[in-house]
Amino acid sequence: MIKEKYVRPAILADALELAPKMKAEDRAEILASNNASPLKALVEPFTYEKGKIYSIIGTKDEGVIGMFGCCPSQLPEYGVVWLLSSNDLYKHTRQFLKECPYWVAQMSEGYTHLFNFIDKRNWQSLKWLQFLGFEPKEEITEFGHAKIPFLLVTKEIKNVRSE
User: Fold this and answer.
1) Which of 4, 22, 144, 149 is most deeply packed, by most CB within 10 A?
2) How close are the terminal C-alpha atoms of the chain, in Å?
């Protein structure tokens, strides 16, 4: 029997599978922020020694429907969180939202804060991050490659454990 609808540690092949089916909002955000292709954005986290990278597996037919993780930043106590997905993730919204707090806790181990910059047009991502306790802290009016508005979102981590 083939296992369906679960999260596992990512492998590089997952990036090759997800890149061509990445949803339009995520494509627009990574292009605007650092002019990256979907494949480049999905492969880059594998280059961080302490990166935590996971894949979201849908049904047998859907395969990899999302990838997420946390990468170290220039400040050791701050981790950069990210999620890139296909539209198929919306078919699993209830399960995804139920499991998110667990995975955020896993990714936050060793950090006092998590953060990222979100394209202001990507309201679904912003809504999801706020559901998880992230707060918009600052708007940067000319951010990244496209020089468009992005929001800095952060989450303070309680009960920090070192790795």
Assistant:
1) 22
2) 35
